[in-house]
Specification:
Blueprint: H1 3-61, H2 66-88, H3 93-119, H4 127-162, H5 164-173
């Protein structure tokens, strides 16, 4: 075999091993996004359970505010449905973008309920209510942190997919850009 043939085989082997390494790197970054979403999803489920408890507690106490409670329930149902879609493919852009919008709607509905509670002085005697609100605030802080971890994982993945030689392989293997929340 001539020197040129050895060089060609060596270059082919180098490209093959580089391609395998790049693929494994992008896959591990993609798995990091899925792992970060799993943590976020845990906090979303906790928030949903606490909101249900809050609504169950408030419905008999404030019968005139059923429209506000219905808005929170609707926002929560939409958020849970979209979270289910993101669970299947956390790197897919469209479901994550829809979930981000649903989070904003849910946050607005929850803020309306919380501000409504501040205006009803008769509810101050319910210690269970305020314990539930404190727990909900804690879960919201944890969810916010988990969301930040998810967004960082998405940023690292998108950076890796956007770099030059990996970009060629990313399009070849179908790695698209991920969306943050």
């Amino acid at each position: 075999m001539s020197g040129l043939a050895w060089f060609a085989w060596g270059l082919a082997a180098l490209l093959l091993f580089w391609g395998i390494g790049a693929y494994n790197r992008v896959m591990s970054l993609r798995n990091a996004i899925a792992s970060a979403f799993a943590q976020l999803d845990t906090h979303l489920n906790e928030r949903a359970q606490l909101c249900n408890k809050l609504l169950d507690l408030l419905r008999p106490l404030l019968p005139n505010e059923q429209a506000t409670f219905a808005a929170l329930e609707a926002a929560q149902a939409e958020s849970q449905t979209l979270a289910q879609a993101v669970r299947a493919r956390p790197c897919s852009g469209d479901p994550v973008a829809s979930l981000a919008v649903a989070h904003a709607v849910h946050a607005a509905a929850l803020t309306r309920v919380m501000s409504m509670l501040d205006h009803h002085a008769e509810l101050r005697e319910h210690s269970e209510l305020y314990a539930l609100m404190d727990e909900l605030k804690l879960v919201e802080r944890q969810r916010s942190f988990a969301r930040q971890v998810f967004n960082q994982a998405v940023g690292v993945y998108n950076h890796a997919v956007g770099q030059f030689p990996t970009r060629v392989l990313a399009s070849l293997y179908g790695f698209g850009e991920a969306r943050s929340l």
